[in-house]
Design brief:
globular; 7 strands; alpha+beta; Chemotaxis protein chec
Length: 153
């Protein structure tokens, strides 16, 4: 059994996110920081990771950046992408990342099942946790989009 450190776990999820975004949209993302940028994220896609080491996967971004990603994911022209389309794209993104990370972590101590994905939206969202909660973060960006990845457990 391969045991991952907290940073390695963050790297696995970030690598999966980079691969998924490239596959579904053609965009190239790079990890820019292990700390999330202070931003006005308006969308947070969430999947619960249930297992011996339960937690949550959160992917957040600004609505305008998700509109661009959604357009490339779906082929819908950017100016006709609806809020429902953006929410669906965010749910699909977080769901695919969780599923692919689950496969990649299959031989490790991080075995989990995934909940149904959901999106929280609003102005200037913040993720707040109890003290001593383990949070792994990565801020990823590219030419037209940026996202923050968090694993909370």
């Amino acid at each position: 059994m391969n045991i991952f450190s907290v940073d390695e776990l963050g790297d696995v999820f970030a690598d999966v996110l980079v691969e998924v975004v490239a596959t579904i949209s053609g965009f190239s993302l790079n990890v820019l920081s292990s700390e999330p940028e202070t931003s006005s994220d308006e969308l947070v896609g969430i999947v619960s990771l249930n297992g011996l080491k339960s937690g949550m996967l959160l992917i957040s971004s600004e609505e305008a950046k998700m509109r661009t990603l959604c357009s490339f994911m779906t082929g819908i022209p950017k100016n006709t992408v609806t809020k429902d389309d953006i929410d669906d794209a965010m749910c699909e993104l977080v769901n695919i990342v969780a599923g692919n990370a689950k496969l990649r972590l299959g031989g490790s101590g991080y075995l989990f099942t995934c909940s149904t994905p959901f999106v929280v939206s609003g102005a200037n969202l913040s993720v707040i946790t109890k003290k001593r909660t383990c949070i792994v973060s990565r801020f990823l960006g590219g030419s037209e989009i940026s996202v923050t990845l968090r694993i909370i457990y």
